[in-house]
Structures are given as structure tokens and as C-alpha cells.
Amino acid sequence: MRVVIAEDLFLLRDGLTRMLQAHGMTVVQAVETGPELLAAVAAGAPDVLVVDVRLPPTFTDEGLRAALEARRGAPGLPVLVLSQYVEPLYARELLADGTGGIGYLLKDRVMDSTQFVDAVRRVAAGGTAMDPEVIARLLTHNSGNGAVASLSPREREVLGLMAEGRSNAAVAQQLVITERAVAKHTASIFLRLGLQPSDDDNRRVLAVLAYLNR
Amino acid sequence: MSITRTAPELRARRPRPFGWIGAGASALGRGSALCAVASAGAVPVLAMACVLRMLLSDGTRNITTHGPYHTWVLLGLALLSLSAVRLRWAVRHSRRLVGRWCGVAIAEPYRPAPTGDQVGRWQRISWLLNDPATWRDLLWTGLNVVGGFLLLLLPVGALAVYGLSYLLIGGRIGHPDASVPSAPLPTPPTPPTPAAPSLPTGSGRPLAGPVHSLLHAGVAVFSLALLLCLLLTAAALWAAPRLLTVYGRLAEQLLGPNREARLAQRVDHLAATRSDTIDSGAAEMRRIERDLHDGAQARLVAMGMTLNTAEQLFESNPQAARALVTEAKASSAKALAELRDLVRGIHPPVLADRGLLDAVRALALDLPLPAQVAGTLPARPPAPVESAAYFAVNELLANVSKHAGACRVWIEITHNGEALRIGVTDDGRGGADPSRGTGLRGLERRLAAFDGVLAVSSPPGGPTIASLEIPCALSSPKTSSC
Question: Are residues B403 and B306 in the same domain?
Fold first, then answer.
């Protein structure tokens, strides 16, 4: 798997490179700034980008904007965004096109290497990897709106874990219920959010979008 | 309060029913009323002058004969302060009336009253007498009395001369009824009319005619007088609104804050807001220090100790060491989370990245109720203003979700070229009062550091509209010039 990393802190950039290489991925290029990232994407044809939100030269949301631009150039290009903080506004912008292949994690999650690499793989495969903190903030603040409000507490829990990018098996394990029960819950969630069975592949992403977009 | 009530837009002029005559008549009435109010201020001053006169004449005698001279002095000073207060009251009224009638909003020039528990009568008296505005008030009152007297003198003098000439002519002619009605007619009370004194010479000339034509002469005098009266009245009606404007300008010069008073008021305001800013800055530093000390710092120390113990246990009890390392890892995660919250409290990252509009959008996403953010900012305000505005909106929204019991909230952010304007409207139960709530008071004080203002309209039953305005230019070169 070919990865491009954009991170301005040398230590973290180096650490990420080593970690991903240790897990059998190819780091095509590890760059420092937003413009360099765009150049690297154009040159390297990566399978997934790992991008820090705050990058030089502006030290604002340069990385996020570069990632969004790269995705405009290559629709569906998987992007995993790392940040010192999570911001539902940014998560919403990333997910806005509804094609999936998006991750948004706190930098803390890098400390657990297996979980982090797992997240990179999920995103590269077109899934989602939302930080539990984003999900938690949305669950606590956003529960009063629209279709998401009609979900039962258990269904909301399942949706939260789904948004984090877990498979049905992982959700079942986390909530200590059977996989059949999880499947029942997800079917009910899709029904209540009005997601048709035909677009099966992206329904998980669309479900996450439903409550990011209100 | 008085400034807002006399603001020009509230005094939008309604069309007069009788055109310029009506306007002139109302201006005449208003001018007279203004003179009367201003002269009312002279009454206490006159009373004071009388007392002083008595003091000067009687006081010297009383020293030797009656002894308690200082009681007289006390009485005099009490009257002095009383008259100063009365004077201020009268001038305040004329200031308001001038604002309403002359179209000139006049701010109060007085120095702030001494506050605190230790303020005695002496401090109040010296405050009243040391304020240069008091003496300007006095000057204004004096000018009003003298000016009013002179204005009155013109028509009265004209009347007197006219009456005299009537007596002279009428006595000789023996046709008093010919000119009787013309006597009370030239009575426009206030306008200075230089034409008035010329009246008697015009009416006195036909005196030289032969006796049999005296009747005709009488009629001629009467019609000439009537014509002059009409002309005079018309001139008065025409001049009155203009004079009223001049009067307003003059009042503004004397009753409004002059450069010195304006500077003094500005210095007072700056001193107050500076001390507020320093206080809130210091409080914020203490909060950050406390959070770091009790939170992240303590966690890092604990983590170091845990790792130290783990290091010692690696040989003897690897199981326990691993547990300790796991604990340290959890501790580091918590320390990071705390630091993150701290940073968010100091300067929210979205605000730094995206500016006010998106930062408020992010705030709206965090609200437990639906919020709609509208508005545009062509460029970013200066960072301190942006930050103050953000935290103000944050606090207003927190109030809405905590106390308002609202179902929806609307936020609008605009910049009108001079000031940043933010409105936060909710459909809650209303009844928010800045004078009661410490939160809103604190918000007002923090905005005051930027010369910003907060206005809250919250009738019981809602809706609550909180709007704040901070004067500032935007950073873009296109808009910073305006």
C-alpha cells in the first residue's frame, strides 16, 4: 500500500514513516507543507494520504484544505486526517462528498500503533475512521435533530461505533451482543435514516453523514 | 439613556399640517419654552446671590454681635450646593428639549459623581463646584436670561414706541379707534426684528397733513401699521426655525462636552476599562496556572513516578511493570486531553484556523439545540476583537442553552464598515437582564475594553435578542480604509 504523509513535526513524521513501514506499507513521500502534499499526490499516485490538519506555510488548516483539494482532483482518494484536536465542523467537511475513504483522528491515537494502522487500512479500503471523541461530541450535542433523534439509545451506540469505522463483528464485541443483534440494529438504523438497500457499500458512510450533516 | 432617546433617527420630523407657517409657529413656541426653562435655572442662582449678599452685609455685623458666623457660612454653602443641583436639573431639561426640538443631541459634560461610602456633603459640593461644566452651565443660564430679556425688549420696545406715537397722534387727531386695533397686533414675542423700531416714524409722518384729511391719514396709518404687523409676523415665523437651529448650535457649544470634558470622560472610560482588562487578564492567568498545576502537570508527575516504579519492577515482576506502563499510557492520554481543553479555552483552534464565522459555526454544532448561523465577513477582524467576539458569542449561547428554554437560536454576524455586529436571537422564555445577571455584566465589561457595547432585549415570554457591536476595521486592505 502506497502512503503519502504530510506532517510538519520531524519526530512525528519520522515516527509515522517507521510505523507504517513496519506494518508493511510503502511510504512514497513524507512532506512538510500543504503545497508539497499536492505535488506529492500528483507525482506519487498514493493509495492513502495521512495528513496533519495544521501545516506550514499558514499554520492554520492548510493540511485539511490541501487534502480536500487533492480529493477534488482524485475523487474518493482515501485521506486520514490527524489533528491535535477534533472538530465536528472539519469532519463534516471531509465527509461532505459522501464517497467514504475518510478518517479523522486525534494525534493521540498514533500511540496505539495497531489501532492506528488498522484505521489507515480501513480508510484506504474506502471505509471511515472517525475519532471516538468526534462521535462522543456529536452524540451528546447533536441528538436532538431529525432522523437521528428517532434512533433508540442502543441504535445510536451502534451508529457511533459504525462511524468510528468498526465492522459488525467489532461492534458486537464492544457492546457484548451477538453479531445478529448488530445486524438487526444496523438494518433498523438504515431504515430510519431512509437509506436504500441498493447502495449497500456506502450505507455505513451515509449513515455517519446523516448525523454529521443533521 | 437620554442620549439614546434624543438620537436623530428617533426625532424624524413629521410633515407640518400648515407648511412653513405651522413650522414657524411651533418653532416660536418652542423657542419661548426653551428660554423659559433655561431662565428657570437662574432662579436658584439669583436666590444664592441674595443669600451671599446678606452674608456679606450681615455676616460682618454678626461676627461681633451674634457670634455663630460659621452657621451662616454653612447655610450659604448649603444653598450654594442646592442651587448648583437645581441649576444642573434645569440645564439637563433644556439639554433634553434642545435635543428634541433643535435636532442637536447633546451629551452630558459632567465629571462622574464621587462614589463610595465615605462621600460626604463637602465632597459633593466640591465635585459640583470644581466641575468646569457647572460654570459653563451658569454662563449658559446667564446668556439665556440676558438674551431672552433682549429678545423680549425688542417687541416690548417697539410696542412702547408705537404706543407713544399713538398717544401723540391719537391725542391730536381724536380718532383713537382708527389705530386702536393695530396696537396689540405687533406682538411676536421672541424674534429680534430690526424693522420694529421703524414703525413709529412711518406712522408719525401723516401728522403734518391738513385737519380734514386726518381721517384718511388715520386709515392710511392703520393699514400701514397692519401691513407692517403682517410683515413682522411673517418675518418672525420665517426666522423662528432658523433661530432655533442657531440656538441649538449655541447650546451644543456651551452645554455639550467641550474638548477638555470629552478628553476627561475618555480618560475615565479608559481607566475603568483598563483596570477591568487587567483584572480579567490576571484572573485568566490564574485559571490557566491552576489548570496546568492541578491537571496536566500533576498527571505528568504521576506518570513519571509510575514509569519509575515500572522500571524497577521490570526484572522482579514484569507482570506488575506492564500494568504500570499501561496505567502511565492512560495517564498521558488524559494529560493530553486536559491540555487540549486548556488550549481550546485560551484560543480555540478553529478560530485561529478559520476565523470568527466558522468558529461560531463550530460552536453552533456543539449546541444541544438547532442553531442557524448567517452573515458574511469580507475579511478577518483583528485577532483580539475576533477572540473577544467569539467568547462573547460562546457565553451568550451558553446562556441560551442553560437558561432560555429555547427551541431554536439564530446567530447573525456582519460588519458594517465600522463595527462588527453580532446578533444572537432565541425563541426562549425571555426575561434576561444584564443588570441582574453577572454573566452579562461581565460580558459588557469585557466588550467595553474594545469600546464595544452589548444590548439585550428580552421581554418576559421572549424572544431574547442580544446584539453586540465592536468598532473595528477588517484586516483586508480593501475594507480597512473605510
Answer: no
Q: Which of A85, A104, A131, A135 to mutate against chain B (most B CBs within 10 Å)?
A: A85
Nearest to B350 among A87, A140, A141 (CB): A87
Cα–Cα dist B295/B320, whole Å: 26
CB pairs under 8 A between A and B: 47
pLDDT in tens, chain B (482 residues): 333 333 333 344 455 556 777 777 787 787 777 777 766 667 766 776 776 676 666 555 544 455 566 777 777 777 776 777 777 887 888 888 888 887 778 888 887 777 766 667 777 777 777 787 888 888 887 787 777 777 666 666 767 776 776 666 655 554 444 444 444 444 444 444 444 444 444 444 444 556 667 777 777 777 787 888 788 778 877 877 788 888 888 888 888 888 888 888 889 888 988 888 898 889 889 988 888 888 888 888 888 889 999 999 988 999 999 999 999 988 888 888 888 888 888 888 889 888 999 999 988 888 888 889 999 998 999 999 999 999 999 999 988 888 888 888 999 999 988 899 999 999 888 888 777 767 888 888 889 889 899 998 888 887 899 999 999 888 754 433 33
Report the gap between the CA of A110 and the closest CA in chain B (Å). Answer: 11
- pTM of the predicted structure, to 2 decimals: 0.66
| Contact yes or no for B365 and A89 at CB 8 A | yes
Please name the residue that has the C-alpha cell 423700531: B197
Q: Residue B150 is part of which domain span?
A: 23-111+120-170+216-257
Domain end residue (candidates: B344, B368, B396) = B344
Alpha carbon B39 to chain centroid, angstroms: 24
C-alpha cell at B177: 379707534
Q: Which residue is closest to A83 within chain B, CA to CA?
A: B349
The total number of residues shown for chain B amounts to 482
Q: Residue B412's Cα: distance from chain center in Å?
A: 27
Shortest CA distance to B447 belongs to which of B407, B404, B395? B395
Amino acid, single-letter form, for residue A60: T
For residues B238 and B156, state if they share a domain: yes
Q: Tell me if B201 is assigned to some domain.
A: no
- Inspect the interface and report whether the beta carbons of B370 and A84 lie closer than 8 Å: no
Contact assessment for residue B96 and residue B6, using Cβ atoms and an 8 Å cutoff: yes
All domains in chain A, ordered by first residue: 2-141 (3.40.50.2300), 144-213 (1.10.10.10)
Q: Does residue B8 fall inside a structural domain?
A: no
Residue B86 lies in a domain: yes
Domain count, chain B: 3
- Asked if residue B166 and residue B37 are part of one domain, the reply reads yes
All residues of chain B having their beta carbon less than 8 Å from the beta carbon of residue A56 are none
User: Is residue B328 domain-shared with residue B384, that is, in the same domain?
Assistant: no
Residues 6 or more apart whose Cβ sits within 8 Å of residue A100: A76, A126, A127, A128, A202, A204, A205
Q: Evaluate whether residue B177 is within a structural domain.
A: no
Cell numbers for B357: 464565522
Residues B312 and B222 in one domain: no
Look up the ipTM and state it: 0.74
In a shared domain, residues B47 and B164 = yes
B157 and B58 co-located in one domain: yes
